[in-house]
Known about the structure:
Chain A is mostly beta strands and about 140 residues long. Helix content of chain A is about 5%, strand content about 35%. Helix content of chain B is about 10%, strand content about 35%.
Amino acid sequence: MNQIIRDIEAPFIKDDLPELNVGDSVKVFVxxxxxxxxxxxxxxxxIIKRRGSGIGKTITVRRVFQGIGIERVFPLNxxxxxxxKVLRRGVVRRAKLYYLRQRTGKATRIKEKTGGRRExxxxxxxxxxxxxxxxx
Amino acid sequence: xxxxxxxxxxxxxxxxxxxxxxxxPVTVVQLGENIVTRKLxxxxxxxxxxxxxxxxxxxxxLTKPALGSFKKNEIAPVAPLREFHVADSATYNVGQPLxxxxxxxxxxxxxxxxxxxGKGFQGTVKRYHAARGPMTHGxxxxxxxxxxxxxxxxxxxxxxxxxxxxMGNQNVCTRRTKIVRVDTDKNLLLIKGPVPGAEGSLVLIxxxxxxxxx
Lengths: 136, 214
């Protein structure tokens, strides 16, 4: 990639993101503006897809809420993403977990990865100015 | 009338995030030297204009006659040259760069002109998004053109009928695109969305002629 473009992207790219893999259960803390006030909302689910590189990197997080499957795409370098917490490492054999869409209940379980490196607690990103409120 | 614009080189596309956290697709343009090489006046030439050179080039790239005017005005050789009509050419000085910060401002709408990527001689399927026939099941009609009109009446092919031919490599203008950032230190310009041409190609950026546009 061109050096000029890399220099433009550099201030936006976060260096404190945890290692995120497909199959991991994560909690994404998203900043939302509601009636002029800013607050943080957590979104919990399984990463079913990783896509892109550099500034345009995204993850798709799937969760089943009230019987309805919801998939949200998060641009990882967006300033709206306050932090991402990895709750559980999963063992999967696919790069994209689209098969979860066809399954419900017990069939959607993903085996937990055991052993290996321990997780490091994720610091809030550098863009965050004030301490985040408790998520709703 | 050719409105005043600045030359640049398309670097490529990326995305940045706004203050609100929204992602904005941007094209990065490296602005050229944009040096005024000649002034044209109403008395002498019949119209007020300035000639602007886009990028600094090596002396050996020019012929001796072309080099002559640069030598006479004692300015470094620049190319390509282009005239822009201005209200009063006396406000510009030969050898000085254009005031980019005054011409281009953030949030301003601009027209970006460039030469589109050449795609060669293409059929109607690629060139005009014509539907193609079945490729299998015994069909002999694959990607060729269909009918180009009726028979005896009108007895001719209508002008402008979509036919194969050269695609791309022509002058294209993207109108009313927004400037996201002007970086005068690095001579960079970020324009929202795409602009014509391949990476590294010449583009001309001029403010859109609108009443409320700067």
